[in-house]
Inverse folding.
């Protein structure tokens, strides 16, 4: 089946630190991969995506590269800010039939000043 | 203007009651979804409608009945509420059923006492 595994949080960092949140997946076929972010009290927002192997998604200083050989899509940011504190979800969508997002369990990021 | 809106934002009710959650999107999308996020933040799709037709129905108790009166609305009715139904319910929409970004509403926090 299709599944996504994320590192457990919370991840606690100081402002300007480097961020990595690990994500690996299992999928039948060739999935598209996504990172969604959920700020406190809000719904999910798409942060970035990649639709094929070796694609790099990027947005707001965050990056993730679709690695087919390691079935991974790790999220990185060079210098985090307090405003990045949120829950980050890795997700996949298999491109066959009616598509549905399969989410990981989410990783909470806490950034302190 | 809010793209995907849900009402109510909070819902507290007793076991055995029947309740509804409403969702509306003003993005002109033709596909809408309901997701459930449990207390551990795990997100799972429940239903999806395309042009008012049910296309995804995950293993959800038949106490849950979605209804789509038109493409812009997808409501969720829950009969005989149970403690385990306590969760945050997210509505989402997309343009089409394949390869399109899903836009999420702010969520409805349901608490069953």
């Amino acid at each position: 089946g299709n599944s996504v595994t994320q590192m457990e949080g919370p991840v606690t960092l100081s402002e300007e630190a480097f961020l990595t949140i690990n994500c690996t997946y299992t999928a039948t076929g060739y999935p598209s991969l996504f990172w969604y972010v959920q700020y406190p009290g809000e719904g999910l927002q798409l942060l970035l995506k990649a639709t094929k192997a070796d694609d790099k998604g990027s947005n707001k200083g965050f990056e993730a590269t679709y690695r087919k050989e390691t079935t991974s899509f790790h999220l990185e940011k060079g210098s985090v800010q307090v405003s990045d504190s949120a829950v980050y979800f890795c997700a996949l969508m298999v491109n066959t039939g009616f598509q549905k997002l399969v989410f990981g369990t989410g990783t909470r990021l806490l950034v302190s000043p | 203007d809010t793209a995907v809106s849900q009402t109510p934002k909070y819902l507290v009710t007793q076991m055995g009651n029947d309740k509804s959650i409403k969702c509306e999107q003003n993005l002109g999308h033709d596909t809408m979804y309901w997701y459930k996020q449990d207390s551990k933040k795990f997100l799972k799709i429940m239903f999806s409608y395309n042009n008012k037709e049910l296309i995804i129905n995950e293993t959800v108790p038949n106490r849950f009945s979605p209804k789509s009166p038109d493409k812009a609305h997808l409501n969720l009715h829950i009969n005989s509420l149970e403690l385990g139904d306590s969760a945050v319910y997210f509505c989402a929409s997309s343009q089409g059923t394949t390869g399109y970004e899903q836009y999420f509403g702010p969520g409805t926090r349901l608490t069953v006492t």
About this structure: The interface with chain B takes residues 32, 36, 41-46, 49, 51, 87, 89, 93, 95, 98-101, 103, 105-106, 108 of chain A (CB under 8 Å). The mean pLDDT of chain A is 92. The first strand of chain A starts at residue 3 and ends at 6.
